[in-house]
Structure prediction request, 361 residues.
Amino acid sequence: MTRLSGKIVTPSGVVTGSLSVEDGRIAAITPGKADTEQWIVPGFVDIHTHGGGGHTFTTGDADAARKVAAFHRGHGTTTLLASLVSSPFELMRDATVAYRPLVEEGVLGGIHFEGPYLAELRCGAQNPAYLRDPSPAEIIELIKLGEGAVRMMTIAPERTGALDAIRLLVAEGVVAALGHTDASYEQSLEGIAAGATVATHLFNGMRPIHHREPGPILALLGSAQIAVELVADGFHLHDGTLAFAARTAGPDRTLLVTDAMTAAGMPDGEYELGGQAVVVAGRVARLARDGSIAGSTLTMDAAFRQAVGAGLSISDVVRATSTTPAAVLGLDGDRGSLEVGKRADVVTLSPSFEVTSVVTA
Prediction:
């Protein structure tokens, strides 16, 4: 049995005492005197990650995917989706086949297709050469090939056939997310009504807010069924925007993601994302061709610290990094919070929120 002592962040509040792990499960949470000042939190759940540690998910390479997962596990992420970018269908298909065994092993929590059914005008770092209208045949083939591995797909709701695609995804048990979109407020509401439940990196890759044409941001932020992804790196969003969005959405609808690419944990320099050249300077990744932000160099422990610095409570940050994303994926019955009987995916943090240990079931 493993015993951890400190300030334990549970769904009902912070408990000072010890947490015991046995046979991969949380066996007990016992109030009492703590041996250390460390924080004990559930393993982070990141539903939007493209790479890290010098490796990428975007090429469909299973060995590289294992290395990405290992890198992020070292930063406290015990469940993560492998996010691809807009790609030819052949690559999407090959990646699904390559990553399915990793999902079955528990190395990955699933696959997220960010594109290619996105808006050209808001493509950001997505390769415009691969953007296209949704194809039901492609979607069904990927879902069948994945045998449960395909967990989420991001779609621009204004594209021809998008609403039917969202309905199809939902019917097949796949999370439909809205993002990289130039949709109007009304078109966004139609995407929500069709069954979308996630906003892909809210504010980024979207038509901005205008008081007479509110666009997708207010529709997504105002919908009780939408969980909003926020990239808490200090670059994608001003801390004031981060805090406002988190307060508005509330802890049950706020989730932090890294949107990390290959350069996470690596030095500044030249990298690649989806076949496009990326330059990283001062920890900010941008496309070489036009300076668009190209993913991030973020890890979830750094996002945790950024959110705390922006004024979110420790309990709310734990919900945003673990509990809410687990719920979005339908995994909250088994992980995402520190409760007796759940998987022992546990992270210990120093008083300054640096990762000191990672326990995985």
